TrEMBL record, chain A:
<feature type="binding site">
    <location>
        <position position="235"/>
    </location>
    <ligand>
        <name>Zn(2+) 2</name>
    </ligand>
</feature>
<feature type="binding site">
    <location>
        <position position="182"/>
    </location>
    <ligand>
        <name>Zn(2+) 2</name>
    </ligand>
</feature>
<dbReference type="GO" id="GO:0044205">
    <property type="term" value="P:'de novo' UMP biosynthetic process"/>
</dbReference>
<feature type="active site">
    <location>
        <position position="308"/>
    </location>
</feature>
<comment type="function">
    <text>Catalyzes the reversible cyclization of carbamoyl aspartate to dihydroorotate.</text>
</comment>
<keyword id="KW-0479">Metal-binding</keyword>
<keyword id="KW-0378">Hydrolase</keyword>
TrEMBL record, chain B:
<comment type="function">
    <text>Regulates the transcription of the pyrimidine nucleotide (pyr) operon in response to exogenous pyrimidines.</text>
</comment>
<dbReference type="InterPro" id="IPR000836">
    <property type="entry name" value="PRTase_dom"/>
</dbReference>
<keyword id="KW-0805">Transcription regulation</keyword>
<comment type="function">
    <text>Also displays a weak uracil phosphoribosyltransferase activity which is not physiologically significant.</text>
</comment>
<protein>
    <recommendedName>
        <fullName>Bifunctional protein PyrR</fullName>
        <ecNumber>2.4.2.9</ecNumber>
    </recommendedName>
</protein>
<dbReference type="InterPro" id="IPR050137">
    <property type="entry name" value="PyrR_bifunctional"/>
</dbReference>
<keyword id="KW-0804">Transcription</keyword>
Automatic annotation (TrEMBL), chain C:
<dbReference type="GO" id="GO:0006207">
    <property type="term" value="P:'de novo' pyrimidine nucleobase biosynthetic process"/>
</dbReference>
<feature type="binding site">
    <location>
        <position position="56"/>
    </location>
    <ligand>
        <name>carbamoyl phosphate</name>
    </ligand>
</feature>
<comment type="similarity">
    <text>Belongs to the aspartate/ornithine carbamoyltransferase superfamily. ATCase family.</text>
</comment>
<comment type="subunit">
    <text>Heterododecamer (2C3:3R2) of six catalytic PyrB chains organized as two trimers (C3), and six regulatory PyrI chains organized as three dimers (R2).</text>
</comment>
<feature type="binding site">
    <location>
        <position position="55"/>
    </location>
    <ligand>
        <name>carbamoyl phosphate</name>
    </ligand>
</feature>
<dbReference type="InterPro" id="IPR036901">
    <property type="entry name" value="Asp/Orn_carbamoylTrfase_sf"/>
</dbReference>
<dbReference type="GO" id="GO:0044205">
    <property type="term" value="P:'de novo' UMP biosynthetic process"/>
</dbReference>
Length: 433, 193, 326
């Protein structure tokens, strides 16, 4: 996977952030020049006319499943899926087997990421030992490790104990860490199978009330304010959560939030099919929630899109709803869903997309080298998107090891044609390099 | 069965004819049964039931025993041999007279005798209800084309037909008039018999 | 073409009346010397029960046998299912055995729907109760019982339940019987009122075609039938209500409340009853209580369902909504 440092690529006529067409010359690991009529001398020329050039996408919330569930995904297959989706960096969630709650495990994941070569892998460390919510994990050791962990999360489980949450928020201030909270009040969601509302009442499936998310978010923004730390809200899913985050930000508190692509598009009406491909946590909500989330992403209340890419083997979805695993894959469809829900609706321009899918997630994760402007001298982490493309999602062609996408058979716009990781193409003409 | 009959249909029996043949059949039953003391009339829904009631009235007249001829209905739907060829059908009423059919002379009554399959089903149904002394069959029209070794004991009218033709019996109780119509398949709805 | 009975909501008024009329005819079989019809000879009906329910299973078994179907009882207890075999593998096994219909009882809401739409099996699927979702044949037998009791001629053939006032009392939240009854009885034109403590009324109930009341006494005087739901004592531990005594006092049916019902009104219970909880022994044993009759009616109603789903080359009742959504 090595490549000559002097290799040159010229993107001819690409539209950086959807603006005027420019030639972009990549030389080695960096952008050498951005201009018009650039000399192609010795460079591989890519006709990028009409295509959108974005900074390489950054995902704050990816389940790579390795170690432990290599039957659903590995660091290699997950990063390949990420590259296909236009990502140049992903944050690997800690709920692996064993849990990423020690320096050893996060370093293992970090090293596997280095070896994969398809995108940067930034491990997330668990907040508590074994995700059990009882005892703080060695947050400092994980930060000090080669993995340099700054984002900590018990995702999949909520840090529901207020004292543990307070201590974690305080503790990570020492190394500019952030706690990414999976906001789910456990008692209010016992036996929860889907959003609590009209549809759950009819289907007889256990309800997951919005208040179970909102009450935790309310508590945590207050805690973060109280101890002067920063908190990040994972996969925010309700209109009420948006209101709370908006209020917290208006106070100047250090609160950030993410929304998943599926919560920007899908609603709990889909659960009427009882098809577990729509089973996800937090659950698909209502149309009103979807609209509030789009609006909040547009106005910046929600900082970023994060995929919550959650691969599961076929058998964990090919069963009755109650027995099925929660989660959806999302890396390979994220940008298309964002184009469909945010760009094609006029809510966000491409600069906005770059901000919500690259700049801000990089900033929250304190990544360097990602989410940078498309100017000379910057690291060449880039994504080229054919936004005019229309295609039907076919999971058989996924690079991910898993196929649990809710979009199968659905037409979505946009296709990543090239992804560059520090100047090297990981995706060429829509296919893995 | 209530579908409109096209102009192409030709009436082969009118109300007076039907009245006359029912009276004749009633007389034949009394004669063959040597009185009608143990006769039970069971009509096959829908129109066979009305014919059975009319026959019962005539038998009571002839024998001078008003209200003494037991009459009922026998739905054969669940015994049909062509159930799996069509959607499941609504059931009609089976009404067996209070004294039952054991040891009695059961006269099955239907409007049209065609393939004989309905009567085969009726005999099966009867077997699950009791053990008559004998079973006889009365029909208003026998149109031929038997597919089973079955014949009628009492026939109102023998009507030679081709398979392209349809025979439709109309009775006042169900259709507002009495008549037997002969039509062509595709021009009048098949009666399925 | 598939034909299933997954939800009472899938039935149109005409479908429902057809099933009730068919059940009415089949009920007469009970008076005959041979209580059996040859209609489903050579067809195989599998009772696939992932949850214990002897009553429902034997009711379906009797129904299928009276129609001459071969019946295979497949109970999850003590079988490979309890050893982790999936619903899918069980379904594939049944398909290989040539099941024409699968009557399924499952603890997971939606399992019958999944079975019917997954492509795992070709046979008809009849929902015999799934989780807290639906129990459509129970609703049909309840409607059958109500129609018989409230019609002047004692059968109500051809009629629906237009204008009848039915009150369903108890743990609506966890009740598949209530969900199916709300759908079916309203489809048949009845006015349904749910009565329960607010904790046992589902969040989102406002979309249901019924009224909701928290006060049994306010409703009991103007109802044609009161359906008491079983209330499990364990619910108390999850704080749905404070004590058994308080529940019984506010939402139980006792002799006094029964006396305030209109004279013609009946008391129904899907069984098994918790005497002293939702119903007093006095009411349970009174001749206004139809619980035992409901059991008998269950066989005729399930015969009607099996006949109409399996008796022809296609279902006589509308295809389940599962087809529309696929």
């Amino acid at each position: 996977m090595t490549m000559s440092d002097t290799h040159k690529t010229l993107l001819r006529g690409a539209k950086p952030l959807g603006g005027e067409p420019r030639d972009v010359l990549i030389e080695g690991e960096r952008i050498a020049a951005v201009g018009t009529g650039l000399d192609a001398d010795g460079a591989t020329v890519i006709d990028a006319a009409g295509q959108i050039l974005l900074p390489g996408l950054v995902d704050l919330h990816t389940h790579l499943r390795e170690p432990g569930r290599e039957d659903s995904e590995t660091v290699l297959t997950g990063t390949r899926a990420a590259a296909v989706g236009g990502f140049t960096a992903v944050h690997a969630m800690a709920n692996t087997f064993p849990v990423a709650d020690t320096a050893g495990v996060v370093e293992q994941v970090w090293r596997l990421g280095k070896e994969s070569g398809y995108c940067d892998v930034q491990p997330i460390g668990a907040v508590t030992v074994g995700l059990e919510g009882k005892k703080l994990a060695e947050l400092g050791a994980m930060h000090d490790s080669a993995a340099g962990v700054r984002v900590f999360s018990d995702d999949g489980k909520c840090v529901d104990d207020a004292v543990i949450m307070r201590r974690a928020l305080e503790y990570v201030k020492a190394f500019d860490g952030v706690i990414a909270q999976h906001a789910q009040e456990p008692r209010l969601t016992e036996g929860a199978q889907m959003n609590e509302g009209v549809v759950s009442a009819e289907l007889g499936l256990g309800g997951w009330p919005a208040v179970a998310e909102e009450s935790i978010i309310a508590r945590d923004v207050l805690l973060a304010a109280h101890v002067g730390s920063r908190v990040h809200i994972c996969h925010l899913s309700t209109a009420g959560s948006v209101e709370i985050v908006r209020w917290a930000k208006s106070k100047g508190w250090n609160v950030t939030a993410e929304v998943t692509p599926h919560h920007l598009l899908l609603t709990d009406e889909l659960v009427r099919s009882y098809d577990p491909v729509y089973k996800v946590n937090p659950p698909l909500r209502t149309e009103a929630d979807v609209m509030a989330l789009r609006e909040a992403l547009a106005d910046g209340t929600i900082d970023c899109v994060a995929t919550d890419h959650a691969p599961h083997p076929h058998e964990d979805k090919d069963c009755e709803w109650g027995a099925a695993a929660m989660g959806m894959v999302g890396l390979e469809t994220a940008l298309s869903v964002v184009q469909h829900t945010m760009v094609d609706t006029g809510l966000l321009d491409w600069t906005g997309v770059a901000d919500r899918m690259s700049v801000r997630p990089s900033a929250i994760g304190r990544l360097t080298g990602h989410g940078r402007p498309i100017t000379a001298g910057e690291p060449a982490n880039l994504t080229l998107l054919d936004s005019a493309y229309r295609g039907v999602v076919n999971p058989a062609g996924f690079a991910s090891r898993s196929r649990n996408t809710p979009y199968e058979g659905r037409e979505l716009p946009g296709r990543v044609t090239y992804t560059f990781l520090r100047g090297r193409a990981t995706v060429v003409d829509g296919k893995l390099a | 069965m209530d579908a409109h009959t096209s102009d192409a249909a030709r009436s082969v029996l009118e109300a007076p004819d039907i009245a006359r043949v029912l009276t004749r059949i009633a007389h034949e039953i009394v004669e063959r049964a040597k009185g009608a003391d143990d006769v039970v009339l069971l009509g096959i829904p829908t129109r066979g039931v009305f014919l059975a009631r009319r026959l019962a009235a005539r038998l009571e007249e002839i024998t001078g025993k008003p209200g003494r001829i037991p009459v009922g209905s026998l739905d054969i739907t669940m015994y049909r041999d062509d159930l799996r060829l069509r959607p499941a059908r609504a059931l009609a009423r089976t009404e067996i007279p209070d004294d039952g059919i054991d040891g009695r002379l059961v006269v099955l009554v239907d409007d049209v005798l065609f393939s004989g399959r309905t009567i085969r089903a009726a005999l099966d149904a009867l077997g699950d209800i009791g053990r008559p002394r004998a079973v006889q069959l009365a029909v208003l029209v026998d149109r031929g084309h038997r597919e089973l070794p079955i014949r009628a004991d009492y026939v109102g009218k023998n009507l030679p037909t081709s398979l392209r033709e349809t025979v439709k019996v109309q009775l006042t109780e169900e259709d507002g008039r009495d008549s037997v119509l002969l039509g062509l398949r595709g021009t009048t709805p098949a009666d399925g018999k | 073409m598939k034909r299933h009975l997954i939800s009472a909501a899938d039935l149109s008024r005409d479908d429902a009346v057809l099933i009730l009329d068919t059940a009415e005819e089949l009920a007469r079989l009970a008076d005959r010397p041979i209580k059996k019809l040859p209609t489903l000879r050579g067809r195989t009906v599998v009772n696939l029960f992932f949850e214990d329910s002897t009553r429902t299973r034997i009711s379906f078994e009797a129904a299928a046998k009276r129609l001459s179907a071969d019946v295979i009882n497949f109970s999850a207890k003590g079988s490979s299912v309890s050893k982790g075999e999936s619903l899918k593998d069980t379904a594939l096994t049944l398909e290989a055995m040539g099941a024409d219909a699968v009557v399924i009882r499952h603890h997971a809401s939606g399992a019958p729907h999944r079975l019917a739409t997954s492509g795992w099996i070709n046979g008809a699927v009849v929902n015999a109760g799934d989780g807290t979702h639906e129990h459509p044949t129970q609703a049909l037998l309840d409607a059958f019982t109500i129609r018989r009791h409230l019609s002047p001629d004692g059968s109500g053939a051809g009629q629906d339940l237009a204008g009848r006032r039915i009150t369903i009392v108890g743990d609506v939240l966890h009740s598949r019987v209530a969900r199916s009854n709300v759908h079916l009885l309203s489809t048949l034109g009845a006015e349904v009122t749910l009565v329960a403590p607010p904790t046992l009324v589902p969040f989102g109930v406002e979309s249901w075609p019924c009224e909701v009341s928290y006060d049994l006494d306010a409703v009991v005087g103007k109802t044609d039938a009161v359906m008491m739901l079983r209330v499990q004592r364990e619910r108390m531990n999850a704080a749905f209500f404070p004590t058994e005594r308080e529940y019984a006092r506010r939402y139980g049916l006792d002799g006094d409340r029964m006396a305030r019902m209109p004279e013609h009104a009946i008391v129904m219970h899907p069984g098994p009853m918790n005497r002293g909880m939702e119903i007093t022994a006095e009411v349970a044993d009174s001749d206004r209580c139809t619980a035992v009759e409901q059991v008998a009616n269950g066989v005729s109603t399930r015969m009607a369902v099996l006949y109409l789903l399996l008796g022809g080359n296609e279902s006589a009742v509308a295809a389940a909504r599962t087809e529309e959504s696929k």
